[in-house]
């Protein structure tokens, strides 16, 4: 290959890599997960852009959490491909996906209840840092300490930063879990029913936190509370019986007659 052709090939290759990286934050193609003869999800195809906020909705048993488990690596898909910022991660274990900027919250909070709010967030920041195996105590001015306090503030828990997690309300514990998911500058987050069990006041706090996340940070949220989901998302995917049923904007989904019949009892008014 002569120099001109080689330069052109290299340029094209780099353009292709850049296009794959910037074209989609999360790309699913034909993702299926079988448990024996049962298809929990079947032929799911979805593309989420960098910075996009997507809600995945559906009744219980629609396959939403199984879909999350496949994206995060808790389950490996039976077939299909999962790409994260252009890279095929379909066969990657969960920790390799975390290293590439993926984070997730769970329906049940996983926290150190005997430690303070600030200590929980610091450990999360430490856990995704290069010095995570160091036995040295953090010094004053440690950038991870600074970052952990910034995250405590981002989830509106600064007044409680020295409080034991066991003393927090349930809603405050869910806020703390979001702070843990933000540790290590994630590129993309999956929120699994963050509003479950929250009071109306706590749900308003949750909406403020999610809408206040940096604009470059995309996320997908599973949520049964339609008011929360439609307020924080710019696009919606409806699932039914393990398949994608409808996609559209919050307004389109809210006003869709089939969606209202299947999921909203004939109508929904925000």
UniProtKB/TrEMBL annotation:
Source domain of life: Bacteria
Kindly list the GO molecular function terms attached to this UniProt entry.
ATP binding; ATP hydrolysis activity; L-isoleucine transmembrane transporter activity; L-phenylalanine transmembrane transporter activity; L-valine transmembrane transporter activity
- Keywords for this protein: ATP-binding, Nucleotide-binding, Transport
Q: Which InterPro entries match?
A: AAA+_ATPase (IPR003593), ABC_AA/LPS_Transport (IPR051120), ABC_transporter-like_ATP-bd (IPR003439), BCA_ABC_TP_C (IPR032823), P-loop_NTPase (IPR027417)
Q: Name one GO biological process term.
A: D-alanine transmembrane transport
Q: Which SMART domains match?
A: AAA
Identify the residues that the record assigns to the ABC transporter domain, covering every copy: 26-266
Example GO CC term: the record gives: plasma membrane
The answer to whether the entry has keyword Nucleotide-binding is: yes
The name this protein goes by in its record: ABC transporter ATP-binding protein
The organism named in the record is Szabonella alba
